Structures are given as C-alpha cells and as structure tokens.
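Contributing new complexes? Match this layout with pyridoxal-5'-phosphate.
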Amino acid sequence: MDEYVIEKVTKHLFGTWRLQRDWASPLNIVGGEGAYLIDSKGRRYLDFSSQLVCVNLGYGNRRIIEAVKRQLDELAYLGPGYATQIRAEAVEALANVLPNKLSKFVFSSSGSEANEDAIKIARAFKYPKYKILARYWSYHGNTAGAISLTGDPRRNVVEMHTSMGGVVRIPDPYCYRCPFGEMGCDECGRACLEYIDYILRNEGHVAAIFLETITGTNGVIVPPKDFYPRLRKLADEYGVLLIFDEVMSGWGRTGSWFAFEHWGVVPDIMTTAKGATSSYVPIGITAVDVEVADYFSERFLPVGHTFAYHLLAMAAMKAAIEEYKSGGYIENARRVGEYLGKRLRELMDKHPSIGDVRGMGLFWGVELVKNRETKEPFNTREDKIMGRKLMTQKVARKMLEHGVLLPMAWISNFVIAPPLVVTEEDIDLGVEALDKALKIADEAVEG
Ligand SMILES: Cc1ncc(COP(=O)(O)O)c(C=O)c1O
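Output block (do not edit by hand):
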C-alpha cells in the first residue's frame, strides 16, 4: 500500500521548493489527532511545526469539522456577490477579534493572494505612489507580487522572469545578525530605523511598508520593543501605509490573537491566512482600515476571486474563531510557549551548534551555526537553491526517528511552532528529540 501511494504521489506531483530528485520517499500519513499525525504503520509523530505553521488548532477538531459538514449540506458554493447567513456571521466574528479600524475585508484562498490584494489596494489608494518597502529576511508568498516582496532566495530563482517592479529593500531588525555590525540590542540606537527614515526621505513615490510582523520561515525574527512604535510614527510622518503580513504570526501563535498586539501598534492593512481556519479549508484574508476602504466607495476596486468568501471557508473560520475563544488555546500558547522557550534556551548550553534561540508564544526559531564566535552558518541561501544537503534537514530527519516531525527546516533555521493544543509533556518529547538529533550538528562544529 505504501509503495502504491508513494510511487503515484511522487510520480505525478511536484515536490515544492526543492530539486525534484530530493522528494523521493515522503511519509504516508493516514490521520491526525490533536498535535499528532499518524502514518500508515500506525506510528504517531508529534507535529512540531503545525505543518507549515498553519494547523494551529491541531488535528480532528470536531467543531470545525461539523461546521464545514453542515455548510456542505446546506450550500457549498456561491459567487462573492451574494449575502448569506454564514458570511454575515463569519465576518462579524472576524471583525470582533480585530481592532475596530480593520473592519473591511477581502477574502481569497491563500496568504499569497491576500498579499496580492493588499499590494493592489495600497497602490490604488496611494496612486501615483507605487513603491513598497520590504525586507531581505522575509517570505510573502509565491505569486508574482508576493514573491517580489519576498527577500529570501525563493525570489532569486524567479525574479528575472516574474518580478514586480517598485520594491525597495530595507534593513531587517535582525539583532543576531545586525546589518550594521556587532551592536548589542540594548545599546543600539536602531540604525535600521534611521536608515528606513533615510530611504523614506529620499526615495520618493513610496506607497507602503510591507512586513511580516514577526519574520517566520526565515528564522522567527522578533523585532526589539521600540521598533514598531517608531516605525508606525515614521509611516505616519511620511504618509505611507503600514502593512503587516500575519499569515504565519497570527491566530494565537504568539500568545495573542495577532502578533502586532504585542507592540500596541495597528497596521493600515493586515493580511492573514493559515490559522484562520486552522487550515481545514484554504483561506486568505486582507483586512483594510475603514478609511482606506472608503476610498473605493467611488472608485473601482481592482480585486476579486472566484473563491472569495467561499462558504466552506466562512463556516470553517467562524467555527475556528469560536474554538480559539472558548478553548483556552491562546492562553495555552502563552503558558506552554514560555516553557518551550525555556527548554530551547537550555539546549543552547549543551549544543555549540545552536547560535541563537528567539521567539514568543508557540513560535520559536532555532538558528544553527558552524561557529558560535563568528556566527558562520552551516549553509547558505545558495546551498538551498542548489539542492545541497542542509544541516537543518539532516537534524530534522534524525528527529523523525524519535517520533517528531519538523518540516520547517529552512536553510539554517528551524521554526518550532506546534499546534496550540500542546502540553508541557509534548514539548518535552519534541525538545528531547531535537536534543538527541543535534549531535549531528555538534560534531560538525568548527572552532
Ligand atoms: C508570512 C507569510 N506570508 C505569506 C505566505 C504565503 O501563504 P500561502 O502559502 O498560503 O500562499 C506564507 C506562507 O508560508 C507566509 O509564511
């Protein structure tokens, strides 16, 4: 049975973001329960990254499953131009968990599309301003606009044929690898913000600043405390929109509904996806400030999708929001997340191959290095594109033998982000698997 499944899947489907020869023997998964997935041999695996940081409420959530089934029985699809009960209830629920000003929405089917819609809305609103500031350590999706905003190497392999113009790079508040040299985060006067100020003053035609509130795949980069309040001020001063991509960092992941709440700063547009339905049904959301939205009451809105406001997505999102509200998941992300952070930091004392540990809630990055002194990584962006074996992948493969799945192993970083249902015992299982598997990396440490 395994042979049939794996042969057909790898024969007919592309493996994503990889050389195709490297997708030879995927696990044959037959089910899931809570934070665990089960393979065809009945083996259980702790999902230590909620797949692509998206199954926030875990597997087999009855409330979402029943809601989607009910909606399927009632009506599965209707074009975006109609009013229905489930649409009304779902968007009311969404508006209630967002700040008041973010109460006009476009829905789509993915984070990439949500970002495309945000780009178009921002540019139309700010026309003729069109430039968008974005970071090097970022991922915003695989469609033309979203991949052009992206700073990681997934952009480099396509930019010569699909690039969207008008993207200006700004420095990252990446304190472990500060682009301005070895400054301690506390002493630093925020050279990155000063440089953004300089760009805003001199660039011209800037419509928006587009950022993952907390950079996800590229290493869970949490900006310092004053970064967003000061960036919000700069955006207001120069009259540009502030857009937060909460595709990964939203939905309880960091111990609050959305990550921007930690900084007390509200964006003009927020995009999200993934955890909105806990990934039971595809979804993308672009939430827009009512003042920006008002602009389109007398002007054409250049946005729409066949699957906008899909009824199954609406039913799944409404049920997911009820579940987030009543199930204690966000509090659990805070409480168990603190424990996860403590356990990961303890690993640093033991493993010279760990360069940095950072994160909040149930959203943590572990960055591997060949040399702690020089911070030289085991692998480069080019290694990923060339299909060279990455140290993070070797470690993740070893963890599998200990019953832990960690698919979010990107170049030199792990994203550790289990479903928000996890307990401290689950965390122990995951951290102990990482502890054992890191022997491979420790043995390759130099210096
Ligand atoms: C921060 C961020 N934005 C956008 C996307 C793109 O979302 P999707 O894969 O649903 O198109 C992702 C996907 O991982 C992401 O992490």
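Reviewers usually confirm one structural detail per submission. For this one: Residues 52, 110-112, 115, 139-141, 212, 216-217, 245, 247-248, 273 surround pyridoxal-5'-phosphate (CB under 6 Å).
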